[in-house]
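[audit] Reproducing an earlier prediction to check determinism. Same input, same settings, fresh worker. If the tokens differ from the archived copy the diff job will pick it up downstream; this log only records the rerun itself.
[audit] input (225 residues):
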Amino acid sequence: MPSVGTPWVIRMKQLINQAYAVFAKYEKPSDLVACECCLSPDEKTVLLTTPLRDLSPEQLGGYAADVFYTMGEVPDFKYFLPRILELSVTDEFLWPDPEVVSRKLSLAQWGDWPTEEQSVITDVLKTKFATLLDDPESDGSETDKWICALGRCFPDPTRFLAPLLEPRHEDKLLAFIEYNGSLFTKNKLDNAFWEEARNGEQLVVQWLHQSAITALLSERYGMVF
């Protein structure tokens, strides 16, 4: 993440606080439906007794990865979601990856949620991507990871990609393209998590074939289209 005083980081903190406020109406669950081999009684107790903002990446990571597969339902997911989002966008989770977290939104059919809930989630993810592009230490793999994450919870992830066309983000765009060696040979992206979002993947591939980008690749690398 960029330094703590940058405008995007300040904006992200504001949005995370807003997410906590929007989802505060969902009370802590009294119990969790879970497979015992995936969530031990002790782990469940930690999730149900620790204040939400105090849950560590290690304590919440298993739930965030397995919810809707071996544990959890939409109401408890909405309770935990602000903290899950916070840990994901601040890159504190060792696991799950952002692509896994964003898939949970699709499984929860978040497109049917109240507008204020959809809006704050969208703003958090949009701001994360903007923060990433302004981070001089982020590389092609990070850009790839978050574009795929967006593609796994939005029908059309290209709505977020316009900043990549700005001259100041040219190197980020090229690093993302270089990270996807199959882009112009097989018309596909290399991140395996696209498997469950093929329509989104193809929209990104089509977006990357636009004339402004192919002209840049011709200029930089002598590629012919």
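[audit] rerun output stored. Observation attached for the diff report: The CA atoms of residues 11 and 136 lie 18 Å apart.
[audit] end
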